[in-house]
Amino acid sequence: MSIAFLITALVVVLVPGTGVVYTIATGLSSGRRASVAAAFGCTLGIVPAILASVFGLAALFHTSALLFQTVKFAGVAYLLYLAWQALREHGSLSISSDERQKRSVVAIARDGFLLNILNPKLSVFFLAFLPQFIDPAAGNAVLQMLMLSGVFMLMTLAVFIVYGQFAALMRDRVFSSERAMRWMRRSVAMAFAGFGVKLALSRQ
């Protein structure tokens, strides 16, 4: 496993995306334990994309425009739903004290999982990303891709947990006023809506 892969994978994981925003929003709304569940769910949601890439199934998104568009707009709808939930004063991602720990960790992890599996761009990304770091002289390419994928997932889980724990800490120490909570709700909602629009405008 090359240093180039580790550095590139870390940079990819650190760049804020839908999973990061969801984990941070969960940390702000429900605390540390919930943010770990969010990180776990988002990481688990990578598995289908990785398996699709490893076994060549992601190529279907290149050959079937209908399949790509169907999954894409399901993802767009879900992102807009999360934006609405974040914006609502008593939604599942509401950042207010009376909502703390109201959602189960299973529901939180489930939403994080759905967030990633409904993004067809993720499968296409892994299809383009992983093969660059395969060493033909090292043997079984599928096994190498699975090992690289495992490392990528561990990085994702670790980084997301750090993001979530930091968000939970900031909730208690910084975002204590209702006015601050209201602005944070709007910011999270705008982030999800922005990701939804970006996904909607993306091409196969």
UniProtKB/TrEMBL annotation:
<dbReference type="GO" id="GO:0005886">
    <property type="term" value="C:plasma membrane"/>
</dbReference>
<protein>
    <submittedName>
        <fullName>Threonine/homoserine/homoserine lactone efflux protein</fullName>
    </submittedName>
</protein>
<feature type="transmembrane region" description="Helical">
    <location>
        <begin position="105"/>
        <end position="129"/>
    </location>
</feature>
<keyword id="KW-1133">Transmembrane helix</keyword>
<dbReference type="GO" id="GO:0042970">
    <property type="term" value="F:homoserine transmembrane transporter activity"/>
</dbReference>
<dbReference type="Pfam" id="PF01810">
    <property type="entry name" value="LysE"/>
</dbReference>
<keyword id="KW-1003">Cell membrane</keyword>
<feature type="transmembrane region" description="Helical">
    <location>
        <begin position="6"/>
        <end position="25"/>
    </location>
</feature>
<keyword id="KW-0812">Transmembrane</keyword>
<comment type="similarity">
    <text>Belongs to the Rht family.</text>
</comment>
<keyword id="KW-0472">Membrane</keyword>
<feature type="transmembrane region" description="Helical">
    <location>
        <begin position="66"/>
        <end position="84"/>
    </location>
</feature>
<dbReference type="InterPro" id="IPR001123">
    <property type="entry name" value="LeuE-type"/>
</dbReference>
<feature type="transmembrane region" description="Helical">
    <location>
        <begin position="141"/>
        <end position="163"/>
    </location>
</feature>
<feature type="transmembrane region" description="Helical">
    <location>
        <begin position="37"/>
        <end position="60"/>
    </location>
</feature>
